[in-house]
Amino acid sequence: MITDEQLDTYRVEGTLLRVIRDASPANDVRGSVVAWDDETVMIRKKNRRVVKLGRGYVYQPYEAERPPEYMLPQDPVEPDDLSHDEE
User: Fold this and answer.
1) Which of 6, 20, 28, 76 is the 20 to 30 Å CA partner of 64?
2) Model's pTM, two decimal places?
């Protein structure tokens, strides 16, 4: 869980954050910290909408690379020239 001190630093510096909610990067929330309480954080997105998120999510600066443990598994792809259908 993110601390009050971290949230205050992000708010004061105006740091653009990535909020990782699950393994899919498409579900990340990108925005700036507006306010928080003991259970939630309010994030203002680029379109000026404010979303209320739980403090249990992963909050990190947007410039930082997304941690591999929060990435979807990648399926190995076989090159086309290594076909198993040889006659």
Assistant:
1) 76
2) 0.77
